[in-house]
Amino acid sequence: xxxxxxxxxxxxxxxxxxxxxxxxxxxxxxxxxxxxxxxxxxxxxxxxxxxxxxxxxxxxxxxxxxxxxxxxxxxxxxxxxxxxxxxxxxxxxxxxxxxxxxxxxxxxxxxxxxxxxxxxxxxxxxxxxxxxxxxxxxxxxxxxxxxx
Length: 148
What we know:
- There is one protein chain.
- By secondary structure, this protein is mostly helical.
- The protein has one domain (14-147).
- Helix content is 66%, strand content 6%.
- It contains five helices and three strands.
- It has helices at 14-34, 57-75, 82-92, 99-117, 121-147, and strands at residues 38-39, 45-48, 54-56.
- A hairpin with a 5-residue loop joins strand 2 (45-48) and strand 3 (54-56).
- Helix 2 (57-75) packs antiparallel against helix 3 and helix 2 packs across helix 5 (121-147).
- The longest helix is centred in the C-terminal third of the chain and has 27 residues, at 121-147.
- It is globular.
């Protein structure tokens, strides 16, 4: 019997889902428990990862949005990311977050989680690597711009 070139799709495990969504969940858990976003000494919104390291919230959310825009383009599914964009804009401008803003953004994350459960982890890993490369290029360009 000959094998075909098609490979079996690998769906994410529960552990993979928890790991992938942990950073974004921590941002919303902070809002749910504290009713606010933590800020650093410069007033920049931050969140704490599972290793106790603090990260700026807005760049993390923007990276998440860009990744889902990339996956949406390749996966041909519908996903309205505007509530996450709105949340980012309000955080950047230090504007009061309304309950609806948070609820709508959380609904997007729930939809992302639902979609992710049906995705091929090999394809997602490739898109995550592409996103990491794009972020690194952006960071280097920003550093070069600050030097010049």
